[in-house]
Write a structure and sequence with these properties.
Blueprint (H helix, E strand, L loop, with lengths): L3 E6 L6 H13 L2 E7 L10 H11 L6 E6 L3 H7 L4 E6 L2 H17 L4 E6 L9 H9 L10 H10 L2
Parallel strand pairs: 1-2, 1-4, 2-3, 4-5
Protein name: Phosphopantetheine adenylyltransferase
Function: Reversibly transfers an adenylyl group from ATP to 4'-phosphopantetheine, yielding dephospho-CoA (dPCoA) and pyrophosphate.
Enzyme class: transferase
Length: 159
């Protein structure tokens, strides 16, 4: 039976930190669903469709990645695609408390789905989509933070 994992996030926009987690997760699982959250508590720069398109572009060389979106409970989505695992990236200790709460709740909702935490590469430990957007807004150099397609999309947004 194939191992299937779900890697959720807002990805607004996707960064090299996200890609680090995705590429490493794709080596462990047979199929990896990158799932764009439509988080009602955030005001995204990119639409869900734009985020999906950017993720598809920058992951096109990872054959076992599928890009999708969802609204609702992550464990329901995972069950619908046959996933038995959720992958979450951690940048720093400060991420852990929030992630532990989410993981504990997911476990209450469906104890058959395991969560795996992957520590991001140290060179990306400071990186967040919010920081990238802030630097891009003021025309700062983000070429080492995001792929070219994302850099171009951000430049277009802030014109």
């Amino acid at each position: 039976m194939a191992s299937i994992a779900v890697c959720p996030g807002s990805f607004d926009p996707i960064t090299y930190g996200h890609l680090d987690i995705i590429s490493r997760g794709a080596k462990v699982f047979d199929n990896l669903y990158i799932v764009v959250l439509n988080n009602s508590s955030k005001n995204p720069l990119f639409s869900v469709e734009e985020r999906i398109q950017l993720i598809q572009e920058v992951t096109k060389d990872i054959p076992n990645v599928v890009v999708d979106s969802f609204q609702g409970l992550l464990v329901d989505y995972a069950k619908n695609v046959g996933a038995d695992a959720i992958i979450r990236g951690l940048r720093a200790v400060s991420d852990f408390e929030y992630e532990m709460q989410i993981t504990s709740m997911n476990r209450v909702l469906n104890e058959e789905i395991e969560t795996f935490f992957i520590m991001t590469n140290n060179q990306y430990s400071f990186l967040s989509s919010s920081i990238v957007k802030e630097v891009a807004k003021y025309d700062g150099d983000i070429s080492e933070l995001v792929p070219k397609a994302v850099e171009d999309a951000l430049k277009d947004k802030f014109k």
